[in-house]
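Hey, I'm writing a tutorial for new members on how sequence and structure tokens pair up, and I'd like a real worked example in the thread rather than a made-up one. If someone can provide the structure for the chain below, I'll link this post from the tutorial.
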Amino acid sequence: SLRPSVSLSLSLSVSLPLSPSLSLARKRTHARAHTHTHTATPGCRDFLGSLALHTAVSNPSAEAGELVRRLVKVNAGAARSEDGFGQLPVELAFVSRSPAVGMVIACITTAFPDGALCEGGSNGNTMLHQGCSQEVVLSNKQAMKMIKALLAFHPETAHKVNAELRTPLHVIALTEAPQAVDIMEELIERY
């Protein structure tokens, strides 16, 4: 009589892990345990290797500037950190559609002034070259604010040449956008 109960007990223990509800319960327990072992901080990276600052600079809302300001205040070093794709927050700001993009760039370059000097890509463009590009100027109504913020921290970048020996003035001269004339005027004032 002992034998059937042992066999029954063994049978139950083998079938328990196959139960969908038990499997789900184990996943939840594992997720809770995993969550509690990692403390979230402003320096915590997401699955793309991005810090909260990388995400905030791309935020299209009017509050993006304030979000970035607060994040830089608690973790200024994040302005120097590349995301999982090798991009700095100042580089990501160029895809921002936020009306506060000038403040976003000002906050980032305050924390990391040399970020404006960084050269991206194989053509050696500075952030000012990038900001004057047709792609950025045509797609971003806030391009002038970006240019002014970059020039406020590093006016000398108006004179820097890229690998093609072009200054930002050359780059904006190639741009077919209504803002191009205003941006060109801003650059000419720096000469």
